[in-house]
Specification:
mainly alpha
Length: 323
């Protein structure tokens, strides 16, 4: 019987997690329980109006839809909540100015993206055998992406919230034009040179450099619109043809930590409409729980295509809305 090379299995164990026969999901269950306790405490502590809660009865369904899209693609719930809440403002359903839209979007995502981050990270430690042209995600790369981007995005977000005032309309216009270009580029890459090649197995130095550069503007944009950093990270890793788990999972972790940090400032500033957060958050947590199996069922090709189409469509709509 052939004996394995010394050190080979230990080296693999450091970088890759083999499929687990006993998938208990303890990490996601414990984290989810803590989020539910936090949500229950919010109901007890924060002020809310019963009349307004009854008027906004439809918000849980918006939370479900937004979280499924956000956590299946890694782009963050702001790509759904910002356009939807802008429409509701224009229709006089809710009286939320842009700053309050950002506040409630961050609050909802703090719950929804956290569940998504827990679910994807749980998957990291219970990976299955990859399909043809796919590859397993390296645990070290997953946490390297998360740690590297958060090191720069969170301080940038905090500084932007506290030190700078920007023309929100001009920045939103520029960002959405950039999103359209990015989405079209992703569609082209997905259906041409990335379609029939094997996924990349390990981060390269160029990726580390680009992710560092992405983190800074991503943090600033997220401070203004509650969306940006997750979208940029997910789309870059998609473009570079990394596995879904690395691309979407790390983007969800980064988005969750970034928006939760940014939400603290809004709570302190008193810009949070808690009725919206309290109603939409449960739907967001449910949608986030469902998102991972939906993403894996779709597969890389369909997921990238649908993600790109959503970003392009929502960007075009926001541009039309602001026109």
């Amino acid at each position: 019987m052939a004996t394995p090379e010394p050190g080979l299995n230990s080296e693999i164990g450091l970088n890759r997690v083999q499929p687990s026969l006993a998938h208990t999901s303890r990490f996601a269950l414990v984290g989810g329980a803590l989020l539910l306790v936090t949500y229950a405490l919010c109901w007890i502590i924060v002020p809310s109006e019963g009349i307004l809660l009854r008027q906004l009865w439809f918000l849980p369904s918006i939370g479900v839809i937004g979280a499924i899209i956000a956590n299946a693609s890694g782009t963050g719930g702001g790509v759904v909540f910002v356009p939807v809440f802008n429409v509701m403002h224009d229709l006089r359903v809710m009286d939320l100015d842009p700053l309050r839209v950002t506040a409630v979007s961050m609050g909802i995502q703090a719950f929804g993206m956290s569940v998504g981050a827990l679910r994807w990270t749980d998957r990291l430690y219970h990976q299955r055998e990859p399909a043809p042209l796919e590859t397993q995600t390296c645990t070290r790369d997953y946490w390297l992406v998360c740690g590297l981007v958060l090191t720069f995005s969170v301080p940038t977000l905090l500084a932007t919230q506290r030190l700078f005032t920007f023309d929100g309309q001009e920045i939103l216009l520029s960002y959405k034009i950039f999103s359209i270009v990015l989405g079209i580029t992703l569609l082209i890459a997905t259906w041409t040179f990335n379609r029939d090649i094997h996924e990349r197995a390990q981060l390269e130095p160029i990726d580390i450099a680009v992710l560092t550069l992405i983190a800074i503007p991503g943090g600033a944009i997220t401070a203004l619109f509650s969306v940006g950093i997750g979208e940029l990270v997910a789309f870059y890793l998609f473009m570079r043809h990394y596995p879904i788990l690395l691309s979407v999972g790390s983007a969800c972790v980064i988005s969750a930590v970034t928006v939760a940090t940014g939400f603290i400032w809004h709570v302190d500033a008193g810009t949070v409409n808690w009725e919206v957060v309290l109603l939409a958050a449960p739907g967001a947590m449910l949608g986030a729980f469902l998102a991972r199996p939906i993403a894996l069922w779709l597969g890389p090709l369909k997921l990238k295509t649908l993600g790109a189409l959503w970003i392009i469509g929502s960007a075009l709509y926001l541009l039309w809305l602001n026109w």
